[in-house]
Specification:
Blueprint: E1 6-8, E2 16-18, H1 36-40, H2 50-62, H3 80-91, H4 109-124, H5 127-157, H6 220-230, H7 234-250, H8 258-269, E3 278-279, E4 285-286, H9 328-334, H10 349-360, H11 370-380, H12 384-400
Antiparallel strand pairs: 1-2, 3-4
Helix pairs in contact: 6-7, 7-8, 7-10, 8-12
């Protein structure tokens, strides 16, 4: 077979020689030579496998030099290419060395970080890097701020807590000073409402309007019963209760109680009895009640004359007038005619009580709300001791009249 097949030795050589069969190994076993690529793909041999070393050496010797000519130094042979590797393997103890490719060399993570930092620094020094780097940095800041606003802020804010509405309390403070969130005076036994026993009081639905005389006289029976337990003159009680009924029809949101008006009347003039005055059957206080001149002395305010003495008889300073003690400028603004006689008279308890109610309800106040109640009293007289005295008296009147039938 070897005489009939020939091979060309290289592409540039024209000579052809017959193939020579490989010599068998000395131990008599036949070893089949492996192609170079297949042999290269074999795993490395173990040092404890002498049989494989013998087979590899035998195969290499059989293909080393055809025609008995040494491979090195002679003409180039067809097997000269693969013979170089077995020889180097023999020199190294029969094991082939594998050289790793450059692209397969592993690099440490730290080195990658250093290389990346160097590349970034070099890029940032270029004209394009100087322009793009600040923009990237700003974009990162905006993204971080947006993330914080979308995640951290809602989590920190949480759900809003409901605000409890203010409700009036019926307790009485035990200290002389007004509390920060004060309660309201006792509102029971009011005209225009239902008594605790369920018996309607006079004028429960509409304010009484009589064809002649004093309209508040319609409450005379109720006033006599309440006067017996509270000590308030019946004429004054009729005026306070009638003012509440009128305001209930003209200003429903105010919800003013007669006990508050009665407390102011007591603190201001002892219900029209200051300076030796007496309330007449028609509601007028005689002699007329005029306060001290408002000259800034004795803890009083200083108010110069505003009415040329027409109401208070003083052309130098103003004076408080009547059972509810209005100063002239306030009466000119808020004065009322509750008895229908065509005259707004600050010395008439009917007119004065209704005017006081109109003044307390100014600004949309709701007198059932503690803050509005205290604000109204302090607007009448901006002294906390005065407001506390009004509160105590109103609460006393409400408690005393609770069980009146």
């Amino acid at each position: 077979m070897g005489d009939t097949r020939r091979v060309v030795d290289g592409e540039r050589r024209a000579t052809a020689r017959p193939l020579r069969p490989a010599a068998p190994p000395d131990d008599g076993t036949r070893s089949i030579p492996q192609p170079r690529r297949e042999r290269d793909s074999l795993p490395p041999k173990s040092p404890a496998d002498p049989a494989r070393d013998t087979d590899a050496a035998a195969g290499a010797g059989a293909a080393a030099a055809p025609d008995g000519e040494p491979g090195p130094g002679g003409d180039e042979q067809p097997g000269s290419g693969p013979t170089a590797e077995p020889e180097s393997a023999a020199e190294s103890g029969g094991r082939r060395r594998r050289m790793p490719f450059a692209h397969a060399v592993r690099t440490r993570p730290g080195q990658l970080t250093v290389d990346a930092a160097r590349a970034t620094r070099a890029w940032s020094r270029r004209p394009g890097g100087r322009t793009a780097l600040p923009a990237l940095f700003l974009l990162a800041l905006v993204a971080a701020a947006t993330t914080a606003g979308a995640v951290i802020v809602p989590a920190a804010a949480g759900r809003p807590e409901p605000v409890a509405e203010a409700t009036p309390s019926q307790t009485v403070p035990q200290t002389a000073a007004a509390p920060a969130t004060p309660p309201l005076p006792e509102p029971t036994g009011l005209p225009g409402t239902t008594a605790p026993t369920g018996t309607p009081l006079p004028g429960a639905t509409t304010a009484p309007v009589l064809p002649a005389g004093r309209p508040a006289d319609a409450l005379a029976g109720w006033a006599q019963r309440v006067s017996a337990v509270t000590g308030i003159p019946a004429v004054a009680l009729q005026a306070y209760a009638y003012a509440e009924l009128v305001l209930a029809q003209t200003n429903r949101g105010c919800q003013l109680s007669w006990t508050t008006l009665a407390a102011i009347g007591y603190v201001e003039s002892r219900h029209g009895a200051a300076n030796g005055a007496t309330l007449q059957a028609d509601g007028r206080a005689l002699p007329e009640i005029r306060g001290e001149p408002l000259d800034g002395q004795g803890g009083r305010s200083r108010i110069l004359d505003t009415d040329q003495g027409l109401l208070d008889g003083d052309r130098v300073h103003d004076r408080a007038l009547g059972p509810m003690q209005f100063i002239p400028t306030t009466w000119q603004e808020i004065g009322a005619d509750a008895d229908g006689d065509g005259v707004k008279n600050p010395h008439d308890i009917d007119d004065a009580a209704l005017a006081a109610g109109l003044y307390l309800c100014k600004g949309g106040r709701n007198m059932t709300i503690p803050g509005d109640w205290w604000g109204a009293i302090l607007s009448y007289n901006d002294v906390r001791r005065y407001a506390q005295a009004v509160f105590d008296k109103a609460d006393e009147y409400g408690g005393l009249s609770r069980d009146v039938r």
